[in-house]
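Fold sample X.
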Amino acid sequence: MKLGKIKFAIVKHSPEILIAAGIVGTVVSAVMACKATLKIDDILTEHQESVEKIKTGAADETLTEYTEKDARKDLALTYARTCGKLIRLYAPAVAVGAFSLGAVFASNEILRRRNVALAAAYTAVNDGFKKYRDRVLQRFGEAVDAELKNGVKTMEVKKEIENEDGKKQKVKKAVQTLESESDLSEYAVIFDERNPNWESGGSDYNKWFLHRMQCQANDKLKAQGYLYLNDVYKMLGIEPTPAQRKAGQVVGWVYQPDAKNPNGDNYVDFGVKEVCPTYILDPDKPAPDLDDIDPVFVLDFNVDGNIWDMM
C-alpha cells in the first residue's frame, strides 16, 4: 500500500519533478560545457602541430616518397581525429542538455493532457448542472431557481406601523435575504459597502453603476470577441475568492452572433438581485425601517463556460 501511495505521489507531481530536473540538468549541462572548454586548447594545439608537420613534410622536396596525395590524406585523418576528440569532449554536456530539454517538453505534455482531461470533466459537470437547472426551471420557475442557486431565502420580519387612528401595531413583512455568502453559486459575488465603488445611501447610484459596468462589459465582449470573468471582477472592483480567480482565467463569454449553434447568450448579464442585508434582520424583533436601508446586490453572472474550448 505504501509503495502504491508513493507511486501515486510521483505520478501526481511528475510535471513538477520533470521541470525541476530540466532546470537542474540545464545548469549541469552548462557547467560541464564550461569545464570541457578548458580542455579544448590542448586539443586544438595538438591539432595545429599535426597540421604544421604535414604541411612541412609536403613542402620538403627531399621527401620524394611523401606525395601531395599522402599529405591530403593525413590532413583529412587529422581533422577527423580532432572532430572526434571534440565530440567526445562535449558529448556528456550535450547529452545532459538533451535530457533536460526532454524533461521540460515531457512536463509540458503531461500538463497539456491533464488540462484537456480537466476541460472535458468541467464540460461534463457543467452540462449536467445546466440540465438539472433546466428541470428546476420547468418545475418551479425562475424565482425559485434563483433562490435555490444562491441561497436566497424569504424571511418574515416584524414591522411596527401606525394605523389611521394613530395607534401602533406590529405586522409581518416578507423580506428576501441571504442565508449565507458561502451558499452563493460558484461565480456569484456580493456587491455591498465593502466594495470601493459602493455609494452609501445611494441605492439608485449603485444600480446605475452596475448597469453601466454591464454595458461596458458587453461593449468589450463585442469588441474583442471574448471576455474573461476575471475582467468583469476587475471592472467591478471585486476581489474574488481564490477558487473564483483561478476559474476566472478560463471561464467567461464568447461573442459569436453569426454561429448556427452559439455556445452562450452572446451578451453579459450580471443577474443582479436585490436582497436585504442579513445582519440587520432578526425575526424575533421589530425590523428597522427597511426603506432607509440600502439593499445589497447578488451578482450571478451568465457565463458561457470554459471559453478556451469554444474558440
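Fold sample Y, listed below.
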Amino acid sequence: MSTLWTPGGEVPVDDGRDRSTSPPPQDAPNQAEDPLTGLSDEERAQAEELAEQLAEAREQIANTPASVVVGNHAMGLYELGAIHLSQQPPNLEEARLAIDALGELVEGLEGRLGEHEATLKDALHQIRMAFVQVSRAMEEPTGGQSEETEEATEE
C-alpha cells in the first residue's frame, strides 16, 4: 500500500500489488473479495467515503493538463526555497536545493510548461536573486553594517 499526497493530507492507496510472499491462512477471510472485511459499519462508511474522494481527486488530476500540475509543483519548490531563506538564520543549503530543483524543472522543461511558463521563469529569477541577497547579507560583518558604514563610523 502506498500513499497519495493531497491538500487534505496523505491518503493510503492500494496500488493493486500484493506484497505478501506467503498465501493467506485458509481460515482468513478473502481480502480480494472484500478489503473492508472486519471493519465496523462506521469504519466501512469512512473507508468508502475516502475511496470516493480519492477517485474524485484522481479524476480531477487526470482532467488537468500536466503543465498545470507541474507548474503547481514548481511553485511549491519556490515556496520551499523562500521558507528556508526567511529562517533566522537562513538555511542556505536547504534553500539552494529547492531553488536548484526549481531551476531544473523550469529550464529543463522550457517550451513545455504552457501558459504559465513566463511566470515560472520570473519566479525562478526572483528566488535566485533573493538567494544572492540573503547570502551576501550573511557575509557582512556582524551588526548588519556594511563596510562603507563601518568606515564612516571609524572616521
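Sample Y note: Strands lie at 2-6, 9-13.
Also: DSSP finds five helices and two strands in the chain.
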